[in-house]
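Thread: Newbie trying to understand structure tokens

Hi all, I'm a second-year student working on a class project, and my supervisor (Dr. K.) asked me to get a predicted structure for one chain before our next meeting. I've only ever worked with sequences, so writing a 3D structure as a token string is new to me. If someone could post the tokens and maybe explain what I'm looking at, I'd be very grateful. Here's the chain:
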Amino acid sequence: MTRQNMTMVWLILALLLCVALAAAVVAVVAIPARREGREILTDRAEELVSSVTAKTEKVLRRDGSSTDADLVEPEVTEHGRPVRRRS
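---
Reply by user tm_fold:
Sure, no problem. This is what the structure looks like when written as tokens:
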């Protein structure tokens, strides 16, 4: 292997290590918080998600992919996110 190839291998390994560390942080912080019922996103982010969802539904209706009768309105939180049922 040439020196350039070895450098690229180490770079890829370093990037994979960074991704693994980021996933570990999410697993340690966000997953337990979500299980306790706390929202992960801020109020502003929740509003952004709900506006994107509404725009997506509007585009689907305009496209003719589904009609108003086909769309079943899901239960949503005060921020417009779908209510998740736990079993």
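A couple of things are worth pointing out once you decode it. The radius of gyration is 21 Å. The chain has a mean pLDDT of 80. Feel free to ask follow-ups in this thread.
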